[in-house]
Design brief:
By secondary structure, the chain is an alpha+beta fold. Helices cover about 60% and strands about 10% of the residues. The chain is built from 11 helices and 7 strands. Strands 3-4-5-7-6 form a 5-stranded mixed sheet, covered by helices on one side. The chain has a two-stranded antiparallel sheet with strand order 1-2.
Length: about 425
C-alpha cells in the first residue's frame, strides 16, 4: 500500500510539473469516456441504460476526436478551445440523432475558462454556452424539450462554470495569503535591519563620546606630566593620577557600552546606569583638573527622561572636549541646562581663540570656518551630537560667537520619542549650581 501511494504521488507530481502531458492524458481519458458513452442507450428513463444498444456514427466519432484533441491546448488557448468544442457540440446536436456526448469536452473547456478568468467573464461565457447548447438540444433533438438529457446539458455546463469559479476564487485566496505572508516577512526583516542599524549608530555615538572625551584628557595630562617631570615631580604625579582616573573611567564606560552587545548566556553585563546630568559634577571636575576652567549652571527642575538626560550629558561632554582640544590656552567654558516649558535647553559657551591646527567647518550645519569652531579633529563630534539630538526630535545649533569663542546650543524635548523608561537617579542631581 505504501509503495502504491508513493508511486501515485510521484506520478501526480510529474504530471503537475508537465502540464501539457497532463492535458494530453485528460484529453485521452475524455475521448475514451465519450466513445464508451456513445455506445450506451439511456432508454426511456424507466430502466437502466443499456450498453451496446447503439453504435456511434463515424461523423460523431470524428467530432469526439476533434473536441478531445482541442483539450490538449486548453491552458494555452482556453477561450478558443471552448469556442471550438461548443461549436462542434452544437453541430452534433443539429446533425445527429441521437447525439453523441460531444458536450463532455465542452464541459471541461468551460471549467478551464472559468478557473482562469474573472467572474464577469465566467458569467457571460457560461450563460452563453449553457443557453446555446441547451437550446440546440431542445430544438433539434428527437426527445421532448423537457427530457432529462436536455436538462442534463444545462446542469453539467452550469456545474462546470460554478466549479471553475470556485477553484479560481480559492487560488486567488491562497495567493493573497501567501503574498501577505511574504510581505509580512519582508517587513519584519526590514524592521529588524532598521533596528540593527539604529542600534549600531547609537553604540557608535556612545563609543565616540567616551573615547574622544577621555583620550583627549589623557593626552593633555600626559603632556603636562612629560613637561614638568624633571622640574616639578609633584605636579607630574598629580597629572599622572588624573591620567589614571580618566583611563579608568573610559574603561568603565566602554565596559558598560560593550556589555549591551553580550548575548544570552554570556557573563552578566554591568548594571551601572548610563551617565547623565546627575554625574555632571564629576565630568566638570575632570576638565578642571585638565586645566580648563568651567562654570556650570543647572536649573533645579524635575528630572528629565532617561534618553534626554543621556543626550544632554553627551552634548556637554563632547562640547567641553572640543573646547579643551581646540579653544587654545586661557580659554574658559560655561555650561547651562535650563528647563523651558516642555523642552530642556543645553548651552556650552567658550571664549577661546582657537589654534592654527584646528579643522575648518564643513558647511553651515557644522558652523562656519574660523576661530572657535568647536569641531574635533576627526570631524565626527558635532555630527554625532546633532544625530543624537535629532533622534529625540530636538534641534542643535553650533557656531562662532560674536567677539570670539564658540557656542553649542541644544533644545531637547522633555517627552522623548524613544519611549524609554526613566532610570531612577540619573537626573536627580541636576540641581547643581557652581
Amino acid at each position: 500500500m505504501t509503495t502504491l501511494s508513493s508511486g501515485f504521488a510521484r506520478a501526480r507530481r510529474w504530471l503537475r510539473e508537465h502540464p501539457l502531458a497532463f492535458d494530453a492524458t485528460l484529453a485521452f481519458c475524455t475521448l475514451v469516456a465519450m466513445i464508451c458513452s456513445s455506445f450506451t442507450d439511456p432508454g426511456d428513463g424507466h430502466g437502466p441504460p443499456a450498453f451496446g444498444a447503439r453504435t456511434p456514427e463515424l461523423f460523431s466519432v470524428l467530432l469526439m476526436t476533434l473536441t478531445a484533441a482541442a483539450l490538449v491546448l486548453r491552458r494555452r488557448r482556453p477561450m478558443q478551445v471552448l469556442a471550438v468544442t461548443a461549436a462542434l457540440a452544437a453541430v452534433e446536436y443539429v446533425l445527429m440523432d441521437p447525439p453523441a456526448p460531444v458536450v463532455m469536452s465542452t464541459v471541461i473547456a468551460l471549467y478551464t475558462v472559468a478557473s482562469r478568468t474573472d467572474r464577469p467573464t465566467t458569467w457571460r461565457v457560461g450563460l452563453l454556452t449553457m443557453g446555446g447548447l441547451t437550446a440546440a438540444a431542445m430544438i433539434f433533438g428527437s426527445t421532448p424539450w423537457y427530457s432529462q438529457e436536455n436538462f442534463g446539458v444545462f446542469a453539467w455546463t452550469g456545474l462546470a462554470s460554478a466549479a471553475g469559479d470556485a477553484v479560481r476564487s480559492r487560488r486567488a485566496f491562497v495567493d493573497a495569503i501567501r503574498e501577505r505572508a511574504e510581505r509580512a516577512e519582508r517587513t519584519r526583516e526590514e524592521e529588524a535591519r532598521r533596528r540593527v542599524a539604529e542600534e549600531r549608530l547609537r553604540i557608535a555615538r556612545d563609543l565616540h563620546d567616551v573615547v574622544a572625551h577621555h583620550i583627549a584628557l589623557v593626552n593633555v595630562q600626559a603632556g603636562v606630566a612629560a613637561h614638568v617631570m624633571d622640574k616639578r615631580p609633584d605636579q607630574a604625579k598629580e597629572a599622572l593620577a588624573h591620567v589614571r582616573d580618566a583611563s579608568r573611567s573610559a574603561l568603565n564606560e566602554l565596559r558598560v557600552t560593550v556589555g549591551l552587545l553580550r548575548q544570552q548566556g554570556d557573563p552578566e553585563a554591568p548594571t551601572e546606569p548610563a551617565p547623565g546630568l546627575a554625574v555632571l559634577g564629576e565630568l566638570v571636575t575632570t576638565f578642571r583638573n585638565a586645566g580648563l576652567p568651567v562654570e556650570v549652571a543647572c536649573a533645579d527642575r524635575d528630572r528629565l527622561p532617561a534618553a534626554v538626560d543621556l543626550a544632554a550629558y553627551r552634548v556637554i561632554q563632547e562640547a567641553l572636549t572640543n573646547v579643551r582640544k581646540h579653544a587654545g590656552a586661557g580659554a574658559k567654558a560655561e555650561v547651562s541646562v535650563v528647563r523651558v516649558g516642555t523642552t530642556a535647553e543645553v548651552t556650552v559657551l567658550d571664549n577661546g581663540r582657537g589654534s592654527a591646527g584646528r579643522r575648518p567647518g564643513t558647511g553651515p550645519a557644522d558652523g562656519p570656518p574660523g576661530d572657535g569652531d568647536g569641531l574635533d579633529s576627526g570631524g565626527h563630534g558635532l555630527v554625532g551630537m546633532r544625530e543624537r539630538v535629532t533622534a529625540l526630535g530636538g534641534v542643535l545649533t553650533a557656531g562662532p560667537r560674536y567677539g570670539g569663542g564658540f557656542r553649542v546650543h541644544a533644545i531637547l524635548p522633555v517627552e522623548a520619542r524613544t519611549g524609554e523608561p526613566e532610570r531612577p537617579g540619573t537626573a536627580g542631581g541636576t540641581g547643581l549650581r557652581r
